[in-house]
UniProtKB/TrEMBL annotation:
<dbReference type="InterPro" id="IPR000515">
    <property type="entry name" value="MetI-like"/>
</dbReference>
<dbReference type="InterPro" id="IPR050366">
    <property type="entry name" value="BP-dependent_transpt_permease"/>
</dbReference>
<keyword id="KW-0472">Membrane</keyword>
<keyword id="KW-0812">Transmembrane</keyword>
<comment type="similarity">
    <text>Belongs to the binding-protein-dependent transport system permease family.</text>
</comment>
<protein>
    <submittedName>
        <fullName>ABC transporter permease</fullName>
    </submittedName>
</protein>
<dbReference type="Pfam" id="PF00528">
    <property type="entry name" value="BPD_transp_1"/>
</dbReference>
<feature type="domain" description="ABC transmembrane type-1">
    <location>
        <begin position="99"/>
        <end position="288"/>
    </location>
</feature>
<keyword id="KW-1133">Transmembrane helix</keyword>
<dbReference type="InterPro" id="IPR025966">
    <property type="entry name" value="OppC_N"/>
</dbReference>
<feature type="transmembrane region" description="Helical">
    <location>
        <begin position="268"/>
        <end position="287"/>
    </location>
</feature>
<feature type="transmembrane region" description="Helical">
    <location>
        <begin position="148"/>
        <end position="172"/>
    </location>
</feature>
<keyword id="KW-0813">Transport</keyword>
<feature type="transmembrane region" description="Helical">
    <location>
        <begin position="103"/>
        <end position="128"/>
    </location>
</feature>
<feature type="transmembrane region" description="Helical">
    <location>
        <begin position="37"/>
        <end position="59"/>
    </location>
</feature>
<dbReference type="Pfam" id="PF12911">
    <property type="entry name" value="OppC_N"/>
</dbReference>
């Protein structure tokens, strides 16, 4: 009987795949397509990506242009659909350009986290021994610190900016990817098909690429989707404290900080970016759940 955990890359197409037409990824796309929540989340993220890409060309006004004669205008004011802030800047325009900043922050944090955590996870999980013990003790020590406080300390040393803030967030997320990948690799390297490949002299790199790596993509993909929401919240928190995006640039987190000062007079200054952050984080979590279901995984990946 075939082991259900055997990598799909090592065997030919199953009768089910032939009947449907296509291979592994075609079957995966079909399963994702049947998940309405995942498809809706993908659509929302695609829309946000388009807004981020073409944002500077579709803003109704200059997002940094000040008009002290028209400060704190209410939504649906003439020429300002969502009103203006305390300096007379158009809120809708700043929300649009803030989309690019917020999504860029997510990409930077995930890139740093995966560049550190994934390779170390493979090494510690596959090599084991003293190297595994040493790295995991460091990993446990890093995860024991309060994330936000450690991020604040790192940004205080490096200097407040979006790049430094996301570097700090990425460093804090790396231990989670390391632990996830290590756990998956430890379970896979003892499988029968891996032992068989090792016994016939297959190079270690080939074993990792052909047998282990494909089976890590499922939990890793889910972790990326869920962790993206955490990265957005972290960026918003650091920007709210003035350690992320610096004026006059706008991000959703920095707009909440500015709106907090005028909440009694103009609550929409913080409500609009806050709603966008909440919806985007919910979208990432929904996408993560949908991908998990499409990839046939029953376990949840915690961020």
């Amino acid at each position: 009987m075939t082991d259900p955990r055997t990598p799909l890359t090592t065997s030919g197409p199953t009768p089910e795949m032939v009947a449907h037409g296509g291979g592994v990824w075609a079957d995966f796309r079909r399963r994702v397509g049947r998940n309405r929540a995942a498809m809706t989340a993908l659509g929302v993220l695609a829309l946000l990506a388009l807004v981020a890409l073409f944002g500077p060309f579709i803003t109704p006004a200059d997002p940094n242009a000040q008009n002290l004669r028209g400060v704190l205008l209410d939504p649906f004011s003439p020429g300002h659909l969502l009103g203006t802030d305390q300096l007379g800047r158009d809120i809708l325009s700043r929300l649009i350009v803030g989309t690019r900043v917020s999504l860029l922050a997510i990409c930077l944090a995930l890139a740093v986290a995966m560049a550190i955590g994934v390779p170390l996870g493979f090494l510690t999980g596959y090599v084991g021994g003293r190297f595994d013990g040493f790295v995991m003790r460091l990993n446990d020590a890093a995860m024991s610190f309060p994330p936000l406080l450690l991020a604040i300390a790192l940004v205080a040393v490096l200097g407040p900016s979006l790049r430094n803030a996301m570097l700090a967030v990425g460093l804090l997320m790396a231990p989670r990817f390391l632990r996830l990948v290590r756990g998956v690799v430890i379970g896979l390297k003892e499988e029968t098909y891996v032992e068989a490949s090792r016994s016939i002299g297959t190079p270690t790199l080939m074993i990792i690429v052909r047998h282990i790596l494909p089976n890590t993509l499922s939990p890793l993909t889910v972790a990326i989707a869920v962790t993206a929401g955490y990265a957005m919240l972290s960026e918003a928190g650091l920007s709210f404290l003035g350690l992320g995006v610096q004026p006059p640039d706008a991000s959703w987190g920095s707009m909440i900080r500015e709106g907090f000062l005028y909440y009694g007079r103009s609550p929409w200054l913080g409500i609009f970016p806050g709603v966008l952050i909440a919806l985007t984080v919910f979208t990432f979590v929904t996408l993560g759940d949908g991908l998990r279901d499409a990839l046939g995984r029953e376990e949840r990946t915690e961020s």
